[in-house]
Input
Amino acid sequence: MSLTPGDRIVELLGQWSDGPVPDVVVEPDAEMLARAVAAALVARLAAAQAVHGTASVVLTGGGVGTAVLRHVAGLAEEPAPGQDVDWTAVDVWWGDERFVPADDDERNEKGAREALLDRVGVPPQRVHAMPASDAGFAEPEEAAEWYAGTLADAARDAGAEGPLPRLDVLLLGMGPEGHVASIFPHSPAASDDRPVVAVRDCPKPPPTRVSLGFSAIGSAEEVWLLVAGEGKADAVASALGGADPLDVPAAGACGRRATRWLLDAAAASRLPGAGG
Output
């Protein structure tokens, strides 16, 4: 990845914010960002498999998130030396999902299957989709409780302590008001400590969703926030400037070992040092 602009921003963020400073990477545009993130993700999953034998990733939707998956599928066809991921040993989870029928184009799962999962042969038992509205759950609260149970079962089967399995990389997009997953500013989900929550009355349609909560997001080894576009620059600056997660939920998205903000130049444009 092109680290120089990000390194300059990180140095200045240390003076600008009192909180811990995450990694910041800046690419010239959204397409180059998606390509760079795809290469980094493949390398990270391969490294996890080298250590653990398996790898796990939490997917996000959105334009950049889906573009990343398409590029990952392309890299899987011609892997670089030392970056050959065994997709039969990758567990796939989701950060949030729209509570709509399974064949609805709004489903993050549908987009991920088309962009990546159906192309690389991840076994069905390793694809842990959040329930659709026509999957036998009358309410999103029931779906959220089931998904929390699925996470807990995976943790127990792996011998992990606590209710969550090892999550090597958790990908997140961010909205222009700073929402991540389906945690919106000043919403009940922003102050809910459960690992999976039902979300109703979202300001962005569709209004009913299931989302990981901050406790699950924060359990991931690494959290990567993928953000492109000038319309999100103010929220990026607020989050990295130490905003309250109730006001800007992205500010509360932090990994156990690393937090990486992966930005295009437009999204980074309000950060100190971004101009040169």
